[in-house]
């Protein structure tokens, strides 16, 4: 079977690729576990790896129909659609956000529909689909009320995937990811970028700026658990989802102060002291509109598992990205 | 000011046009009540009227950008977007439903955005955005879970209107209409057609077939009140909507038995006796899945009013469509 990862050069795409290559097989179209013979990594830049005979690196614009028609065929049994314009950029460049977050998602579904073989399609979505006045605890069936263009575009893509699945054009699943922390690499344009930066930078000897106040609550998932959830999301039987293909993944609800306390516990005072506070109203407004507490019992019943604590998340980052030790 | 009605040849579009012409003025772009100098009725067929110097009848495909660019300019202060592909057809012709219910709605918003004057835009939506397991009483913030392509497309258009409004591209409002009863004219293929037919046909001397059992509950709004709600929906100050531009309009929750009792009270035994019962499993299944009870306190706070009772709805039909008397 062939597997396609869009956003394959990104950090989640790269980790997912390595995980799939290590697993060697996956459930796809027919629900039977099959060997992965080809893993296509599509992105606007060439994916740096992994170096493996099964990997095919493709550069292209996912909003171009011809690109998707070239890369999705009847052997493409599973598609992980991770490509996205992040929240900050979708807010500053409305057209680009619409083109990638909504139009490209629809195009992908349409090309699958045209092929007619009903591949498993995993979309990632976001807590940004929620907003406005929210209940104390957010459920899978709490109403969507996005307060950002990114959230509106993701919510629109969710609706499409659900309807294309209901009609039998694809066998789709949408996973609403908590904010991923700790991301490796550089800060990015996402409003939530600091949720990784305030841990990652201090651990690698650099200063970090926290743009929100310490009481701000976040809903977090480690990259490690996110990858496990993506694979599980592809392999779960369609019937288990009932009439709702969208699921809120389990996260850890934690305040910024608690995150820093966990960093201090794991890495010491000197590391935690590298965080500076500088309020950014724009970031506070976007992040403050996201819910911080969730009932994810449905996700758990479906077999998804998150992290046990934020300390575990910090330790997982040190293990996975820093080789198990904190640089002096 | 100019006003545009899409679906202007339809039954609601025609009634709305007559109402606006009679009112002579409307709040639009700047929130000030202004005289209506031009009322554009766009549809795929020529609207039959009204015969008034202010009316401009236009035939065109609403999914064509050039049509909307021709009809929406900086003087277009208010737009009522009623054009839609109905549920049955959107299910049988997926591409047509997507094109009209989703793409044309987006195009309309985009042309407004390009013009830059932030017109008031009123979208109509539907109870079909709900589905699956529903609470006993449906609220404005009950989660959407459409189980039809029509519902998914309407829900997608709702999301777009909300985001375009949040960004200041338009001043939009979405009204989710209850089932409209009593519609004039002929029965149609809609599952809810009987909700008008079992009143309209007996009142005009014809037999009607009721395809569902008498305990089936419906959520109804008269054409008269629907038109009042459309006008109110345009005129309410944007700030009153808060961060949610979508509102469930108030309806009357009534069983089929209660509908027939009201008909008997208003028009007598002989009229009510023209209803025959013939169960239609397909219709019963569809109608039985619709929520029948709603909390519409938000709509009421916003100033929307429904009908006081189903008897009022029957009397309104006799007044508006039968000239105030029941044919012998």
Automatic annotation (TrEMBL), chains A, B:
Keywords: Carbohydrate metabolism, NADP. Residues 3-207 form the NAD-dependent epimerase/dehydratase domain. GO terms for molecular function: oxidoreductase activity. This is NAD-dependent epimerase/dehydratase domain-containing protein. It comes from Paraburkholderia piptadeniae. Coiled coil: none annotated. NCBIfam families: ErythonDh (NF043036).
